[in-house]
Design brief:
4-stranded antiparallel beta sheet; 4 helices; 8 strands
């Protein structure tokens, strides 16, 4: 009748809320300009703004997708559909990186938490930060709530690279 088993802890976080809002608003404005241009027979300008709108829409989808973390797996989901996932047993490294890798080390840029299926050295992490966002890793922006949620399911060390002081 009643399942008194262990509760499965599941947390979800948007990849990057700020970038999602900015890119979604920009995409909507570009689509409005595109359709306005096409309505007044400015086909070339309308097409150009339509292409730019599609590019910003893709960026909005990337940043507006959700990272779902459970003790068994980490997955990226958009509108209820899983885009990519990693089983916890396959994850070799979880880390926090700051994307500003040049200049003052106290200024970290945007910090991200990433999940990787391979161990990386500092040179590989540096290359990952230069080519951000990574194509093969799952990631989300860092904050203390997200960091604690990751710590609750990841029993190994969380690697830090150019992330400054982690509270």
């Amino acid at each position: 009748m009643f399942d008194l088993g262990v509760q499965v802890m599941k947390t979800t976080f948007m990849v990057n809320t700020f970038n999602f809002i900015v890119s979604a608003v920009t995409a909507a404005a570009l689509f409005a300009i595109a359709f306005g241009g096409m309505a007044i027979s400015r086909w070339m300008a309308g097409f150009l703004f339509l292409v730019l709108g599609i590019i910003f829409l893709v960026v909005a989808v990337m940043n507006g997708s959700v990272i779902r973390i459970t003790p068994e797996k980490v997955e990226r989901v958009f509108l209820g559909r899983t885009i990519s996932s990693m089983m916890m047993k396959d994850i070799k490294e979880v880390g926090v990186v700051g994307t500003k890798v040049f200049g003052d080390p106290r200024k970290t840029g945007t910090r991200y938490i990433y999940f990787s299926k391979r161990h990386m050295n500092d040179k590989e992490r540096f290359a990952m930060c230069l080519a951000w966002p990574p194509a093969k890793e799952l990631y989300m922006t860092w904050n203390s709530k997200r960091y604690l949620a990751v710590q609750s399911v990841w029993s190994n060390e969380i690697v830090e690279y150019g992330a400054g002081e982690i509270d």
